[in-house]
Amino acid sequence: MFEKRDYKAHTPDKLVLGNKTRIFLDERDKKEHDTLTFTIESKELGRVDIEVTVFKPSVKQREFIGERPIVFTVNGQAQGWLSRRFISQELGFSMLRDFMLIHIDCTHILTSFRQDLFMASRDRLKESENTEILKDKIIQLLKTNEILRELNQKRRTQLMHESSEDREILEKILSHIPIDKDLLNLLKKNGDLSFLKRTGSSHDEHKNGKAHEKKQSRSTKRYPSIFRIDLKQNDDGKRIKSIPINGKGMIKFETDVVDEYLFRPDEKGDLKIKILGRRTNTRSGGTGPGKPSQVEDVLDVTREGPSDGVIRITFEPKSDLAVGEEIELSARLTSPSGDLESIFWVKIVDPQKEEKRPQKQNDNPALPKPIRVFEKPENPDEPSWEKFGFTGDDVVKIIISDEPGQENLVEGIAINMDAFILRRHISKNRLSSQEQIGQVRDKYCLTTYLHTLFLYGILDKLVKSDNYAVEFEVSDFIHDVLKPYSSFLLSVDANEAIMKSLVED
Smallest Cα–Cα separation from 170: which of 369, 401, 362? Predict the structure, then answer.
């Protein structure tokens, strides 16, 4: 097929290419990863070939995908499709939802099976048992794919930047707002928002007049002056950590150094662990110290931190160790003013019995991360329009979690700080000083975040109720609604003094 309309191009006509050919030709410029191919084959189904393409964040959605990201074809002709909701909710790849194209070739499906899949109108799939069988097989195949999971996680890591100042302000505001319990259920768990007020609950965080004590952050320094092991001494004055031969043991160290000390580009420190001695449990070795060796020869070591003044080191015994052996270790944290050292022992004890103990879970919700997105941020690693697929017309985007056990919960709320509506407001009101502009931008960010959060909770409840026979993705709906709604938020904020005077009159 050739395009014959005169677009004043170099040639009088242009060859029209299908998506599959275009994707192949745009191998380097458009794709995040090589196209993934899969095949499902079974006796009752026949054969299904699947191609999955993940595009780069800079690729405009409509260029390849449009509103039909999962396409079912027979002999190259589209027969049905699924919405982006399938990618985010069924596959669990919310970060790839707007950048993934799934082509499902049903050419070789058995005729008896295919008859229950497609409608004559070719606009959607039939609601049938065979359709559900095929969808389930696709979910099982793609949901566990390591490459897709890594790409999804990578995209999340790139986007999840937040301002600590924004978080502190939001925590203060939300601590005074009654929040519906259904909204709390939409937030990620294992958080620190136990101070939230909940409607319909008799629980009071300030019971008996005791005010909530806010956890104070540690004071950190560029270089450490403290490196203290969190391990009690026994009667002999030794600090001993007992670790099962088939298990792991973690030791905490308190410090006062900044989090990036061990990996910052300049003047970084080091944490060194070495063996000072060993005691065996054999008669031939007695109780005298054994010959020192490298730590990695006897223990697997994993380090975490510094993080908020704590370094965690996990030890896992090698298989050649025996129960009863003791290893004397030194952990040394370097510092220009003198290295800091902690000495302790690891003792290998009997294997631990496998017992299924119910894990104590923290049911407190986690505040969705407030993410400020700019058209061209000063730091290229910070959130940008390109990374979020924003234009000047966009206002907000809700980021949904894909973590096991917390799927479809709100993880972050991204606000477009260079939205056209905000720029026009600043220009229309002739704001010139940086202080005025800063105040308006901060209020815009705060109100947009709060309205998005509460709207999400309300709409999610309505969609799930029996009173509304409507199926749509709430995050998409809010994304569209906030475009015109944000102008109302800005106008109300700008006329706050007028509103106050009217109320007083």
Answer: 369
Q: Provide the residue range defining the domain that includes 301.
A: 227-349
Dist. CA 400–CA 403, nearest whole Å = 9
User: Is residue 398 included in any domain, yes or no?
Assistant: yes
Decide which of 93, 127, 156 is a domain's last residue.
156
Amino acid at 112: S
> Over the stretch 34-73, which tens digit does the pLDDT of each residue have?
778 888 877 778 888 888 888 887 776 566 666 788 999 9
What DSSP letter does each residue of 207-224 carry, written as one string?
Answer: GGG----PPPPPP-BSS-
Domain count, the chain: 3
| Contacts by residues 181-185 (CB-CB < 8 Å, ≥ 24 positions apart) | 182/457, 182/460, 182/461, 183/453, 183/454, 183/456, 183/457, 184/365
Encode pLDDT of 180-195 as tens digits. Answer: 565 556 565 555 555 4
How far apart CA 265 and CA 407 sit, in angstroms, is 36
Concatenating the DSSP letter of every residue in 251-264 gives: EEEEE-B-GGGGT-
CB contact at 8 A, 170 and 370: yes
Sorted by sequence, the CB contacts under 8 Å of residue 160 that are 6+ apart come out as: 369, 371, 399, 411, 412
Determine the Cα–Cα distance for residues 78 and 80; give it in Å rounded to an integer: 6
Q: Domain for residue 182, yes or no? A: no
Beta strands in 43-157 (DSSP E): 46-54, 70-74, 77-82, 100-105
Instruction: Report the alpha-carbon distance of residue 105 to residue 108 in Å, rounded.
Output: 8
Q: Are residues 343 and 386 in the same domain?
A: no
- Asked if 446 and 415 count as a contact pair (C-beta separation under 8 A), the reply is no
Residue 355 lies in a domain: no
- Considering the domain architecture, whether residues 345 and 380 belong to the same structural domain is answered as no
Q: Residues near 387 by Cβ (< 8 Å), separated by ≥ 6?
A: 57, 158, 159, 373
CB 326 within 8 A of CB 346: yes
Average pLDDT over residues 357-375: 69
The residues near 427 (Cβ < 8 Å, ≥ 6 apart) are none
> Is residue 177 pLDDT above 60, yes or no?
no
Each residue's pLDDT tens digit, 107-139: 989 888 888 888 888 777 888 898 999 999 899
Element (H, E) at 139: helix 129-143
Give the contacts of 101 (CB within 8 A, at least 6 positions apart): 19, 23, 52, 53, 55, 64, 65, 69, 71
Sequence letter at residue 411 = E
> Residue 382 carries which DSSP code?
S
**CATH number of the domain within which 253 lies:** 2.60.40.10
